[in-house]
Structures are given as C-alpha cells and as structure tokens.
Automatic annotation (TrEMBL):
Signal peptide: none annotated. DNA polymerase III is a complex, multichain enzyme responsible for most of the replicative synthesis in bacteria. The epsilon subunit contain the editing function and is a proofreading 3'-5' exonuclease. DNA polymerase III contains a core (composed of alpha, epsilon and theta chains) that associates with a tau subunit. This core dimerizes to form the POLIII' complex. PolIII' associates with the gamma complex (composed of gamma, delta, delta', psi and chi chains) and with the beta chain to form the complete DNA polymerase III complex. Gene3D superfamilies: GIY-YIG endonuclease, Ribonuclease H-like superfamily/Ribonuclease H. One of its GO terms (molecular function) is DNA-directed DNA polymerase activity. This is DNA polymerase III subunit epsilon. SUPFAM superfamilies: GIY-YIG endonuclease, Ribonuclease H-like. Residues 196-274 form the GIY-YIG domain. One of its GO terms (cellular component) is cytosol. NCBIfam families: dnaq. Transmembrane segments: none annotated. One of its GO terms (biological process) is DNA replication proofreading.
C-alpha cells in the first residue's frame, strides 16, 4: 500500500515552519481507495508570498486544528505504508518532524515521483509537478493546494506504475537501495560511479555551477554521508534541493585531497562552503628602502602581490623571527619598527647605530641583505613523495623556501633529485599557512616520505 502525500507549509524547512495543509491519498497499487485532507493551524503567521502562492491565508487556518490534533490520524494513515511524494524528502522531513513533536515516530520506505519520473519517462525538459501534469494531460484544478497536488501526484504515480517496464519502482524499494535518500534532482549514477579512493568531489546545481567542494579519503562513502540523517534545518534542505550533479577528481592520497580542496574552494568560491574561504596569511615580513637609502625590515598585515619575504598567521611568530634576525645580525630595532618610541636606540650598536646616522648606508644594508639571505636559506625546501592514483605513479607536493609551491604526479621511476627539473613536472598553486602546516605536519608524521633539497 502507498500513501501519496502533499503538504503546504509556511516556509522551506521543518525546524522553523509549520504545516498549513496536508492531504493523503491511499493507493493500493492500482487506484486511490481512500482520501484525507485538512487545513492545519501552523501556530505562526503565513508569509504574504506563501499566501499568494497557495491561496491559504491566516484567516483560513485560524480555526483549523493544530498539527498535534491531527497527528494521530496522519500517523495511522502513513504507518506501514510506502510514503510517496513529489520531491519526497521535503514532504517526508516536514511530516516526520512534526509527528515526532507530537510523540509519533514515523518509520517507512519512501518513493520520489521526481526521481521515478526521470527514470520511467526520460528526456523531458522539466520534472516539476505542473509540467509533468501538462505533458501527461493530468488535470489539476487546485495547483499548490495539498488536495489538488496529492490527487495529481496519485494520477502520476498510477501512470508510473503502469509504465514501469524496467522495474524501477521495485528496485528503489529494495532494502539495499539508498536511492530515496538521494536529492531529488541527483542521478543515482553520479553516486554509483564514485570510486572508493581519495579525492575531491564537486556538487553542481542545475546550471552546472559548483556549489560545494569537499575532500575524502573514500569518495563514495563521504559523498553518501551528505544524504544520511534527518536534519530539517534550512541550509541542509536548500543544499540538497540544489544538488543536480556530482563530479570528482581522484587524488593519490588524502593529503593531496586536503590540499586540492583548499585550493579549489579559493578558486571557485562555492556557495555552501564555509570553512577555508577566508583563510589568508595574516602577517608578512617585508623589506623596503627608506628615503635615506637604508634597507628596513617590518612585520605588517599581509597584502597580496607585495613581494613578502615570509608570511605567517600570527603577529607573535612574525615578531619572533624579526627579533632573531635583529639579534643575530646586529640590526637596528628602530629601523625594524620593533622600537617605536623616541628614546635612545636599544640595539647592540647604541651610540653608533644607523638610526642615529653613525653607520653608513652600505655597511648596514649589507647586514640586512645577509639576514634576508640567511632567513631564505633557513626556510625548508622539501617534497613529499607518496602513493599516486595508479601503481605506476607517485604523488608529489613541494614546499620551497617555507612556502607551498605546488603538486602533481610523477612516474614511479622518476629521479626527483633536481629541484628545477622536478618543478617542471608539478602544477604551481597558490598556498597559505593552512596548506603549509598540513604538509609540514605530514612530513613530521611520515619522515620516510620526505625528500630534502639543498
């Protein structure tokens, strides 16, 4: 037995909205044998645009029963039935949420007439209920009202049952079929084709635009985890409705997937990604020449395209590096902006310091240049050589002078001793402290996979 359900609501997600109308058609596999319909008082105002769409006003539901008063009837109509709806996850999430609030736990199989329509009647430009009804000559005089849409969905379902030569309905109802938990607009094949390997996956909307990027140790398992659970929140419900296609990029290791995800989020700026979008270097070490010709070092907020010597994420780290250079090379704390008061210079050359005009420009600038060169030499240059996408290749990530250079894949037999030659095999990517720290941590954990370059 099937319970074909349609609801009207005050908004798009169950946790903060109420049901204003519910209709249920009990279908025996051949025809509708019982009908139920009622207005419901949602316990909140119905937005004007919702009233304009459905025709249901606050006055109409003022004396209607609240959902908890009809929950008993709704539960017993749905219990032990197969829950059928057009975009079933929306209706099911609302009904299940509000039944639970009334003390009833709904557990039943689901069928989505959007998904079934795509399989049984392929090739149509749209699978919205209205356009399907027009295509199949199903009359619906009460569009956007629960009873009218439930009756139209029931007629559509009857046609799908009669036209299901490929047994798609029975396949969807098998115990091991996870199809009904998938977003209504996502082809099952997109999920079935995912490998169980590390990689980066992309969710696309109906126009093909990437709306979410994620990384995975196991692509298929991770992607499927997005569609489990019953979170009725607005972001999740909108997110699932907008997923229409999945693409992916296999990666040799989870580390490569982590790095590629960070790069792709910055490149594509997907709508539903929150983390990593705004990760930037916070501070950088800069060198510049003042009006007198003296080279000066300074820690300042990071600015793109400004030729920083070194970038870091905290002011403390930047100042610590600069203080070490001042101590080691006898630099002036005033010319390095460490000492900013008008008191006498506290550097080791007090009384004979460049800031006081006693040390000539060439001598002082030589020490600053030595400090910069020493810092560059101290910054590590190494590569991580690890598993590839196939048995005959290796993945490779390069850190050059403390900065992430890029990554790629090299032959299993490739001799990567020459840094310049290795760089020709890799793709350069923009880096940041997040990526650098990931690679650094991985190198500490797996020192046998680290290649050090002089």
């Amino acid at each position: 037995m099937y319970a074909i359900v349609d609801i009207e609501t005050t908004g798009g997600h169950a946790s903060a909205n109420g049901i204003t109308e519910i209709a249920i058609c009990i279908h025996n596999g051949k025809k509708v044998i019982e009908r139920y319909s009622t207005l419901v008082n949602p316990g909140r105002e119905i937005p004007i645009y919702i009233s304009a769409l459905t025709g249901i006003t606050n006055e109409m539901v003022q004396d209607a029963p609240p959902f908890e008063d009809v929950a008993h009837d709704v539960y017993h109509l749905l219990n032990n039935k197969i829950f059928v709806a057009h975009n079933v996850n929306f209706d099911h999430s609302f009904v299940r949420y509000h039944l639970a609030a009334a003390g009833y736990e709904l557990q039943c199989n689901k069928l989505c007439t959007v998904r079934l329509g795509r399989k049984i009647i392929p090739g149509l430009p749209s699978y919205s209920l209205g356009k399907l009804c027009r295509h199949l000559n199903i009359n619906n005089e009460s569009r956007h009202r629960a009873a009218g849409d439930a009756e139209a969905t029931a007629q559509l379902f009857t046609m799908l049952l009669q036209s299901d030569k490929g047994n798609h309905i029975s396949q969807a109802l098998k115990q091991n079929s996870k199809e009904q938990v998938l977003p209504a607009n996502l082809p099952k094949q997109d999920v079935e084709s995912l490998p169980q390997t590390p990689g980066v996956y992309y969710f696309h909307d109906e126009k093909g635009k990437v709306i979410y990027v994620g990384k995975a140790k196991n692509l298929k398992k991770r992607v499927c985890s997005h569609f489990t659970g019953n979170n009725p929140g607005p972001q999740r419900q909108e997110f699932l409705r907008n997923i229409c296609r999945i693409s992916y990029e296999p990666c040799g290791t989870e580390l490569v997937a982590f790095v590629l995800e960070a790069v792709e989020i910055k490149r594509l700026w997907p709508k539903y990604n929150r983390s990593l979008k705004r990760f930037e270097h916070a501070y950088s070490l800069y060198a510049f020449e003042d009006q007198r010709g003296y080279l000066r070092l300074a820690i300042d907020k990071h600015r793109k395209m400004t030729g920083a010597i070194y970038s870091c994420n905290t002011l403390f780290e930047g100042r610590s590096i600069l203080l070490k250079l001042i101590e080691t090379f006898g630099l002036c704390p005033k010319l390095c902006f460490i000492q900013s008061n008008n008191a006498a210079c506290t550097g080791i050359n007090t009384g004979n310091c460049a800031c006081e005009g006693h040390e000539d420009m060439e001598t002082y600038n030589t020490r600053v240049s030595l400090a910069i060169n020493e810092l560059n030499k101290a910054l590590p240059t190494f590569a991580i050589r690890d598993a590839g996408r196939t048995d005959d290749e290796h993945s490779c990530l390069l850190i050059e002078k403390g900065k992430f250079y890029g990554m790629g894949y090299i032959s299993h037999y490739y001799n990567a001793e020459n840094l310049d030659q290795l760089k020709t095999c890799l793709t350069a990517y923009p880096g940041n402290d997040y990526i650098r720290n990931m690679v650094d941590s991985y190198a500490v954990k797996y020192p046998d996979r680290k290649m050090i370059f002089a």
